[in-house]
Design a protein that fits this description.
Strand order of the largest sheet of chain A: 2-3-4-1-5-6-8
Structural class of chain B: alpha+beta
Helix content of chain A: 55-70%
Number of helices of chain A: 30
Shape of chain B: globular
Strand content of chain B: 35-45%
Oligomer: heterodimer
Chain lengths: ~700, ~80
């Protein structure tokens, strides 16, 4: 049994979904598209176990974004596996006259429906009283007052659902009477599909071009029918919408009484939070605190994870016999796994704060505040959410662009989001900034290194906007772009929703990034461990001799052997092969290897450098920093890590697309490798040129 | 007196009498913004951006371009 949860955006549908399913939910995709599908087990009072699917919020069955389109696609296709048996329609009772259009459409499709009047707690507080019986009679369906926030009447809702499943009936009266054109066209479509629901036929006539379940032949036939009967899409859509409202608005007016509303808290808050001058300032202050919080809070759990994995690695090394398998396990698998998990604290904290901002209703204001600015760069106000999320990880950020209806705006957002410095760049910045910027305090309390950090972030943000502007000029599209946004009232966050959201975002990161990072970690381990046999043996022999001559201790000897071996390995060969290409940037073959290994995840840079400089046994950033500072070019004797090289390397990491996981997600979200490849290409060129100019200017 | 929504000053109200663009109309109507809806301009966005509106008691934002296509009959 499948139960669909359908409703408008801001109807509190997700709160209700979380309340109904608790932790028994999972996230997947609707077939064939990348729209997220949240489903969960719903246990009914009569013991029946059912599946509840949370459909994306939409205002009607005339969709404008891919998120909204999925509702139409599933509800008009009885052979789709998510096709529901019954529909639970969620509406905001404080705003009911705006929330019923879609319900009348869904019921006309023939689904047994139930209306959940959500936010009953707010209705009480606002002095709104509802005659449920009157509404139920008019809609010919059960009506239940609930609150997904407080959990009021959830049990009542569950028993209403099980009654609905037992009776399985739908109302008789249609909410919309067809005119002659619609009658003629739907008759023919009815015949074509042997369908007995003429509203479904009307929707097919409207949307046949984009409905995925129609065959090419069916599309042609429907096109001919529409042409013959003069089926004017837009006019008929508007006519239908008007008629439906005309039908239910008078009923609602007589069934709902509102006491005189006092000036709401929302209006008072918005006078400041959307103020034309204060609004952007407040936004930047909030963002400043958000990112401060990440650094302040995330470092402890990150240290625990790193130490935990080091302990685990040593434990495995000491327990298992020395063999290639043990090495693979510790240096390939465990290192890869650690590299994934170490980002969880930062990602979780950022999404914790973003979820709160979303829950209280602030994000919708941010969309409004920045819409105009974003449009100048070919983006949409809704891009703000993705760009901010990009500060944690580009993967969930790119997935959040699905709410942007306009394809060009969405694509540009996807293309530029990875330029926002994500959490993987932080360790690299931390090591390298030490070479360029002294740790001194300026203007009383600003740490100069901290300011340099901020500078790198701003550089990334600036590059994102410039690139967006270039894409805006290049890409052509006549598709209309909209803002049209309803601003929800401010409200206290529902913590259950916040935890749920963090859990989802972290899972997406672990699964999407995890599988790629894992594979690449292992490949890189192979490249760095194996090499031409003779060269490897020679390297080991040489290292042992040097160690004996200079009487190194055991740990230092092992580190030296590791360093010589990686030089002789395949990775070393590749590093040397690309050296001519990166010399103009101020990089040597050792940095070349690190750039290469950064494709798994950027922070691998630090570990690789540690191995190359034969301090593989330490993970301490200060030690690595000291070692790099002492490194000299063997032929000229000049310092390798001059300010110019370090700066050039920093610039490279700001711009370069060094994340295979992101490329994989871009491919999935845009549906083709073309955009992923283009993204890789333009960011690499940007990184190369940026580094080249930096190095040549400063050296 | 009729006037496009985009020309109306902050603080003034009107009733929607007509939509000039069918695509925008189609979308707005599904959100419950219909001929006969009462609209008040609450404020205009930073960066010369969109309009913050009160439409039949709920808060909504529209771009200037979108507002140009909505014709209001002014209320004094």
């Amino acid at each position: 049994m499948i139960i669909a949860l359908v409703g408008n955006p801001n109807s509190g549908k997700s709160s209700l979904f979380n309340k109904l399913t608790g932790l028994r939910q999972k996230t997947g995709n609707f077939p064939g598209v990348t729209v997220e599908k949240k489903s969960g087990k719903l246990l009914l009072p009569d013991g029946k176990a059912t599946t509840l699917i949370d459909f994306p919020g939409t205002y009607s069955l005339y969709p404008t974004s891919s998120d909204e389109r999925i509702v139409l696609n599933v509800l008009t296709n009885p052979s789709e596996k998510n096709y529901p048996d019954v529909v639970v329609y969620v509406a905001d009772v404080t705003n009911l006259e705006k929330h019923l259009l879609l319900l009348t459409q869904v019921r006309d499709l023939g689904f047994p429906c139930l209306l959940a009047l959500n936010m009953s707690d707010l209705a009480n507080r606002k002095g709104i009283s509802v005659n449920e019986k009157k509404i139920a009679e008019f809609l010919e369906m059960p009506v239940v007052m609930v609150s997904g926030r407080t959990g009021d009447n959830i049990d009542l809702l569950k028993s209403a659902i099980s009654n609905l499943l037992k009776k399985n009936t739908n109302g008789k009266n249609s909410f919309y009477a067809f005119n002659d054109i619609e009658k003629e066209a739907t008759h023919k479509v009815d015949d074509l599909f042997k369908s007995n629901n003429s509203y479904r036929s009307k929707l097919i006539a409207h949307h046949f071009e984009k409905l995925p379940f129609l065959t090419e032949e069916e599309r042609k036939s429907v096109a001919i029918i529409c042409q013959e009967s003069g089926f004017d899409n837009l006019a008929l859509q508007i006519n239908e919408t008007m008629r439906r409202f005309d039908k239910f608005v008078p009923v609602l007016n007589s069934a709902i009484t509102k006491e005189g509303e006092k000036k709401a808290l929302t209006d008072r808050l918005d006078a400041i939070l959307t103020h034309r001058i204060f609004a952007p300032l407040i936004f930047f202050v909030i963002m400043f605190f958000v990112f401060q919080a990440i650094y302040a809070w995330a470092s402890y759990p990150m240290d625990w994870i790193e130490e935990g994995f080091m302990f685990l690695g040593n434990f495995v090394k000491n327990t298992l016999p020395e063999s290639w398998f043990t090495d693979l396990l510790t240096d390939g698998v465990l290192a890869g796994l650690g590299g994934i998990l170490v980002f969880i604290p930062q990602i979780a904290i950022l999404f914790f704060l973003i979820s709160i901002l979303e829950e209280v209703g602030y994000m919708a204001r941010a969309v409004y505040i920045f819409d105009k600015l974003m449009q100048q760069f070919g983006l949409n106000g809704r891009s703000v959410v993705a760009l901010v999320s990009g500060g944690a990880c580009a993967i969930p950020a790119i997935m959040s662009t699905r709410t942007i209806g306009n394809w060009k705006e969405r694509l540009i957002t996807i293309m530029v989001t990875p330029l926002i410095s994500c959490s993987a760049r932080i360790p690299v910045y931390a090591v390298l900034i030490g070479f360029v910027v002294p740790s001194v305090t300026v203007w009383g309390f600003f740490n100069l290194q901290g300011l340099a950090f901020m500078g790198l972030y701003l550089l990334g943000i600036g590059a994102a906007f410039v690139s967006a502007w270039v894409f805006k000029l290049i890409l052509k599209s006549d598709e209309k772009s909209f803002l049209m946004l309803q601003l929800p009232s401010y409200r206290w966050p529902v913590w259950r929703n916040v935890w749920q959201n963090i859990f989802e975002k972290v899972s997406v990161f672990v699964i999407e990034a995890g599988k790629v990072i894992m594979v690449i970690s292992i490949v890189l381990w192979v490249l760095a461990t194996y090499g031409p046999k003779e060269a490897m043996q020679k390297a080991e022999l040489e290292a042992t001799q040097i160690a004996q001559q200079t009487s190194l201790d055991e740990v230092a000897t092992a580190d030296l052997i590791a360093a010589k071996k990686i030089e002789a390995s395949f990775a070393g060969h590749i590093g040397k092969a690309i050296e001519p290409a990166i010399t103009p940037l101020g990089f040597d073959w050792k940095i070349g290897i690190a750039l290469l290994t950064s494709f798994a995840a950027r922070e691998v840079f630090v570990g690789t450098m540690a191995t190359i400089y034969s301090i593989g046994s330490t993970k301490d950033e200060q030690t690595i920093h000291d070692k790099l500072a002492a490194a000299r070019n063997p032929t000229t004797g000049a310092k390798v890590y001059t300010a110019a090289t370090s700066l050039s390397l920093l610039i490279f990491y700001v711009f370069a697309m060094q994340c295979m996981s992101t490329l994989a997600v871009v491919k999935r979200e845009t549906g083709s490798w073309k955009w992923a490849f283009l993204q890789f290409a333009y960011m690499s060129i940007l990184a190369y040129l940026g580094s080249l100019i930096t190095f040549q200017c400063f050296s | 007196m009729n006037s496009p929504l985009s020309n109306i000053e902050v603080g003034s109200s009107g009733i929607i009498v007509q939509f000039m663009d069918n695509i925008i109309a189609g979308k707005l109507m599904t959100m419950g913004v219909l001929p006969g809806s009462k609209v008040r301009v609450v404020r205009k966005a930073p960066f010369k951006g969109g309009l913050y509106l009160k439409i039949d008691g709920s808060n909504m934002v529209l771009r200037e371009k979108e507002a140009e296509t909505i014709i209001l009959s002014m209320i004094d």
